[in-house]
Records
---
Amino acid sequence: MSSTSSVVLNTGVSMPLVGFGTYKLCGSEEVYIAVDAALQAGYRAFDTAAVYRNEADLGRALRDLLPKHGLTREDIFLTSKLGPKDQGERAMEAALHSVSELGMDYIDLYLIHWPGTQGVAVGDPCNQGNRAGSWVALEELHAQGKLRAIGVSNYTPAHMKTLLQSCKTPPALLQVEFHPRLCQTELRRVCEEQGVCFQAYSSLGKGELVKHPVVMEVAKGCERTPAQVLLRWAVQQGVPVLPKSSNTTRIQENMALFDFSLAAAAVERLTALDDGHKYCWDPSEVA
Ligand code: NAP
């Protein structure tokens, strides 16, 4: 395996297994320095969202830095997401706004960020109608080539089932929280059966899981860092990851995953930590 290891989406397009998470990166200077370090370390995929409020800064940094690293737009894979406030009728306008904020002609992958709509009660059936409306808008922009692939995030197995039954264009990817304490067995099975790429977010448990004693022990045993162990645990199973860091050393560390592997016993030990713990938001109540 090389650092360019990738997965092929159901659109036929390749996506790097390791992408750079940008949640909480804020302000043009912080984004610029992190993107420069990420490109230098070999990251070729970047994950943002309308709600991160950094699309414009990320786009500006990439447009400025790609030539410095001998790269062009086609060399990178850019993901953004539809904010919960824009579900339904506003989806098309919001997606086009993301394209324009990024200052790109197209987005490689655009996701519905959350199954619910901001301002609508979680149990309200309107949530279902709104995300169905959003999907139709995304399908249209996909057909126009503005969104090269479309997918969803934070969907439960029930949300996935409804979408898969009604869509014209199937989702290319599902992005959810995934780490040894949240193995998402059912969602992974649904994705595998339906040819949907399953992608992890918060692989480091938002920085908390690197301090778990079992993770630290496994790391010591293979002379790697806890973060590398957590990321390798996912990529070794073919699951793409999106580590976020604003620190140059950790940005490099999180990409150095392809010159070692975890023994089967170490993988099993980590997987046995699954207790359904979520460090992030929980979509299970969204109708
Ligand atoms: P994460 O990647 O699990 O953890 C990030 C935290 O870990 C930061 O505090 C970071 O601090 C720290 N960290 C990074 N590398 C480290 C290392 N090598 N050793 C120790 N600590 C380290 O959390 P996340 O940001 O929640 O998830 C990653 C990305 O997934 C996000 O940025 C976003 O792009 C995406 N995401 C999507 C959703 C969604 O709803 N679709 C939700 C959450 C996240 P420093 O910055 O100081 O290094």
Note: Residues 21-23, 47, 113, 153-154, 175, 201-207, 210, 225, 227, 242-247, 250, 253-254, 280 surround NAP (CB under 6 Å).
---
Amino acid sequence: MRVIVIGGVAGGMSTATRLRRLSENAEITVLERSGHVSYANCGLPYHVGGVIEQRSDLLLQTPQSLHDRFALDVRVHHEVLAIHRARHVVTVRNLETGDDLELPYDHLVLATGARAVRPPIPGIERALSLRDVEDTDALVAAASGARTAVVIGGGFIGVEVAENLVHLGLDVAVVEAADQVMAPIDPEMATPVHDRMRAHGVDLRLGSAVAAIGPHEVTLATGDTLYADLVVAAIGVRPETTLAEQAGLAIGERGGILVDDQLRTSDPDILAVGDAVEKTDAVDGTAALIPLANTANLQGRRAADVIAGHAARNRPVLGTAIVGVFGLQVASTGWSEKRLRAAGREVRAIHTHPASHATYYPGADTIALKLLVDPVTDEILGAQGVGASGVDKRIDVIATAMAGRLPASALADLELAYAPAFSSAKDPVNMLGHIAENLRTGTSRSIQWHEVWDAVAAGAAIVDVREASERAGGRVIDGSVHIPVNQLRDRLAEIPDGPVIVHCAVGVRGHTAARILTQHGRDVRNLDGGYRTWIAGTRAQRMHDSHSRAGVPERSTSDRTR
Ligand code: FAD
């Protein structure tokens, strides 16, 4: 059995090594056009910033080590130019010698990854991208003499590159066309991420478009000009489908290689994995492009299983992801609220702000967690988390629950590892389950931050049940009646007639207050996530409104504009 794998990094190398473990007899050749295989592309930004000091630490394997361990024929600087399906042959160019040769296959695996999007902005040639080790070398060299940098794009790679350039001491601006960085999370969850980036000196230009890139500067559509010794474009990626298209393989509606649930393309002798292929979205079953390393590696393993004749299924994907932003963990799985609403889905949102572990044990951080639930079926549709620690495991637990099709209320009963240094006896994931259960059974009702003013206009009164000290410095919702939760039973008469919105700082005391008032016959809703979620959402909304009104981005306090 002759197997050729095109692309020797995440998906491709997972296929090749797994296949060797399954079959000692297969002839396995890996063709990679760059100079490296099996490198840590997820670590590249951290080498730029010097966090991963040694370049060699990024290079996990070499053709020789892969030959020695797995008997693989790995050829770097070898670019596949064409697939001749009828003859079961690929044409390969040795980029060092310029020689072309043909190699036959029985099974071919396309693991060609993705390529960076390069929008047609005047001067874009000067912008660097970060995809591979060669790009990293170029960025390290460019950063060494630079004092200012503009990163175009506030997605995962953009924020990682920005953080690492700040780490190197550069004056960094991030220009993002949307109103928020990190598109997979909702606006109110992104607010603390923006604050963190600005607190570390990043000149964050949200709702901003780049009009032109000059020799020393980047000009925005507003006319603002940002100094830029270095420009990095991190606008997104598109599946690398050139070979597949030329070979006449079916391409899906989202632009990725179409594969079935065994990762076979429209030619059953050719499989495809990773960033190059369209996945099936686990939430709605539609086609999705999810360029993530975990998916690429899992699919690589499954492709090897299929070639080896094992029963294997390519699972739908949730898009579970995490990124570090100046000490904050920002993670998500499944869909966001904005995406669900845009798709016309009914959704119940739950916000909490628990401690990462027991507050009496040193080092606890407050984290923001959000769960999205189908209000009819109780299905978990997505989750997001932002915080200094403990976000990763909560999102991973929820992603696991989603994969196992647990309903939201079942999170209440999960037995999760606990000791004070690591969690609370009721883990934040359990708390999300408690809230989901209360909402599902009607034990409590909630109102979202963006629904408050409509409810007030319809006659609702807002009751703030926090302590007086928590309202200091103007931290109040306008028009709220202040009755601390401990005094509520004695001051019921002070609450105006009609529907009531209760709120506290994060929603916990508000829940108790709501239960007291409900049992006194009042029509009550608890402000979900409390004042903390309300203010984060209100700030995000204000920024969105100012962009929509004037087309003007929110201004940062930095003086990098000239
Ligand atoms: P790749 O790993 O990109 O490999 C494709 C390979 O195919 C390339 O090396 C390319 O040279 C080769 N190739 C293409 N065409 C040909 C041809 N014609 N002939 C020969 N070779 C060819 N994901 C996460 O989940 N977490 C992270 O933290 C994370 N961080 C990232 C940081 C950076 C800077 C980058 C660039 C990506 C990051 N990703 C992360 C995404 C992750 O790296 C990709 O999803 C994953 O590598 C995709 O694997 P793949 O095998 O599909 O493609």
Note: Residues 552-562 have pLDDT under 50 and may be disordered.
